[in-house]
Design a protein that fits this description.
The protein has 961 residues and is an alpha+beta fold. It contains 34 helices and 27 strands. The strands form 5 sheets. An 8-stranded mixed β-barrel has the order 18-19-21-22-23-24-25-26, surrounded by 4 helices. Strands 2-1-5-4-3 form a 5-stranded antiparallel beta sheet. Strand 23, helix 30 and strand 24 form a beta-alpha-beta unit. Helix 5 packs antiparallel against helix 6. The termini are far apart.
Length: 961
Amino acid sequence: MSNRFSPLSLMQWMLLCVLGGILVILYVLSSRVNDGDRVSVELKVRQMLTLDTGINLDILRLRYRQLRDYDNVSTAAQQVEILLEDLHDDFRKLEIGHALDIASREWIVKQQDIEDFKRQNSVLVNSIYHFISLTEQIDTRLENERSRPTYEPLFRAITQNVLIFINEQQAQEIAPVLSAIGQLEELAARDGGPQASQGQLLARHGRQIINNHPPVQVLMRNISRSNFPLELERAYGEYVKRHHQMSLEAEFYRQWMAIFTLLMVLTVIWMTHSIRQKNEEIAKSHSLLHNVANHLGEGILSFDDEGRFNFINSRAETLLGLTRAELMHKSIADLFVPEAQRRGTSFREALAGSRAFEGEEWLLRPDGSSFPAGFLGGPLPPVGESQLPAGYVTSFRDLSEHYEAEARLRLSARVFDNLTEALSITDAEGTIRSVNAAFTTITGYTEAEAKGKKQNRLLGNTLYEEIMETMQRENKWMGEVIYRRKNQETFPAWISMSMVRDEEGKALHYITLFTDLSERKKFEAHARRLTDNDQLTGLANRKRFLERLQEVIRQVQQSHRPVAVLILDLDRFKHINDSLGHASGDRLLKIASERLLSLLKEGDMLARIGGDEFALLLPEISSHADAAQLASRILQKFESPFDLGDREVFTSTSVGIAIFPTDGSVPELLMKNADVALHKAKDAGRSAFRFFMEEDTIHSLEQLELETALRRSIEQEELLLFYQPQVSARDGSIYGVEALVRWQHPHKGLLMPNNFIPLAESSGYISDLGKWCLQTACEQLYAWQHTGLPIQRVAVNVSVRQLNDPEFVDMVFHTLETTGLPSHCLELELTESLLISNPERIFGIFARLRERGIRIAIDDFGTGYSSLSYLSRYPVDVVKIDKSFVDQLEHEAEHRSVVEAIILMSHAMGMETVAEGVEFEIQKNRLEQLGCDLLQGYFFSRPIPAEKIPALPRLTRQCTE
């Protein structure tokens, strides 16, 4: 037979190979495109459009001086460039790379316009700044002069027209203004004098403002009206058409793949048909009687007239715990327990009388245990001429479970009336036959009233039918239901129902046990409200928000539809809470939650996940732009004041945004990335929103590692103090030093303050770091003075977070006491921006410090918001002129004038002046001429370790003198 069918088998195998090859080819052709590529391209296009819109907005802000730097525009342009390059790759995959050519050219043109705008707008803004500054200086000089110069009316008219032009971006007549500017240049040059150069410089900047304004406006309009977004949308439309076309082709190949798959399955069926026939023939060769006997659920025993076994089925071996070989050496009498022989009618007596038997006996197992068995048997008919039975055959089954069931019923009957849970017993038709006392208490039905009623009247027909279907399959059912009392009131109940069957497997009774869950439900509902909702605002809490986010992710996981998570908090909330009290802080949180709720649409979710931190879930957005739009509306909503009853306060918010699935596929990761974006928004200056970017996480991890190492820096003795001398402008002697902290990082080397001080500020470690710096600097100066070095004081920098510490002043006093350094030898340096953060509190701190003789210095003066008149309100000893003014001292007349004004007014108010960043001798000479008290910078010495200070040449000469 094998030789006959071998050619046919070879044909089948060849056909299988051909079909398999065709299927592989069809699979490759059907897999060239997928929906994920289209979604990715759409996300890139939407992100580029969002970035382009942001660039246009930032250009407007730069033009109208609402934004001071071009970092955001440059960053966004770089991101568009990267995304455009990625799109070229995606388009080339579909062989339509040319579709992006026009959009690329438009982007190049827009980039050039942006660069031209940045250059010309910078010139315009610079001219405006210098024009206003010169106007103030000339106006002041004119007010102080007794004789008025001839060009004063012309100067007034020019400044008025140019300032109107600056504020309103237009002038009634430009030509007369330009003509007047020319006249001013001629008159100023003719008059001469110290004010001539300033008049000429004023005229040049005025002309620069008027001439530069039109091209800047043109560039701004060209940027905002660029065709790049339209061409990008058009290119995306071509991509969608091409993708749709290739998807239809792939679907065509998949249909053919299904056809060939069916042919391959039919071939396999054909090949296996002969094998199946052969297996069927083998199966039929087994004895029908042997199969039936071995598959019965009861044990079968057959033995001869002497009681020796001649047939045992598999079930009998299992029940008796003996193999067929072991049973062949035994007789039927060996299987009975000894006590059975002393009972009345037994199976053994039936055997002796060759009678049929139906009854129970106890059988032994090899381990000595016994079990009850139900027997049904009779003698075999005689064989041949003999008149005696040829043997005996019987079936038996294990009755252990039946006995256990009866025992359980008896036990149930005993506890029936003592149960605290309601219990009812119904017959096979569902009619109640018995109930216990708890049933009467819970439902109101007495036992007499309950008997005869149908169970479905208490549960409802539909639910009862479902329960019965499950009972027929599994013999039991349990779950929560709605039960009905006698007065028709419904209540929740936990029900457990089981079935009692007879020997044939038919249902005899149903036992129903249930408990009233009313009180438990009330407690659970209350507990759920406490655990799922914020008690102050009534919003969902973090737990409920995460559960909802997980549910939304499951719903959109297949479609990959974007989902947005926004996290925001209230800027300066801690300051408001501490200043006005927790009641006002709670009121502010409630109003903020109400404003946020007013911005949401159906399906969105708002939760309070921390003190002043809120989270928003937007499950139905089409792109990043939707999330950005809502974030913008949130920022606008917070621009109006908050009415706290007795006063109004202003607070802004910052928003971080993460998008599923690009920024995370699980709730915890989305929340973490949104929080990273929130901190990015705060770093951008607050009242802003930012989307999460992957590099933010990398930066956050690096910052976290650096923060961890920083917290161990004091313990590991990695921090160092360098000292920079402050030299007297009068005699060149070293009067004092400024202490500057450095960090000797074990892996990154020596780190400057700008690499870790901001991190210490944000992490709250600045207090410990500042305390260490103060302690070390005081100890060092005390040691120098006791070795004879003539250094009179040490300056130590203090941060705003240190000043906010209620224990700061006491800590400074304690440090002076423990180190032994006199109070007048310590100078605390603070940046001028600190003066406007909390003036009353800062004034109190300064006063306490100065009472003890500690000197107060204002660092970086002239770069912030304060002025000398504002500074006069505070008890300050030293004003430090910022390095930016010193750098331009010989190149910019206005900087020289500012420095001179600072020195003169500081001296008038009894303050000392220190110039920072002195690097050249010409700067030193000029500052000496202007009357500056102390000089500090690289011209004298860089910051150096403490051990190198005594070797400074100036200090050595002082010691010698």
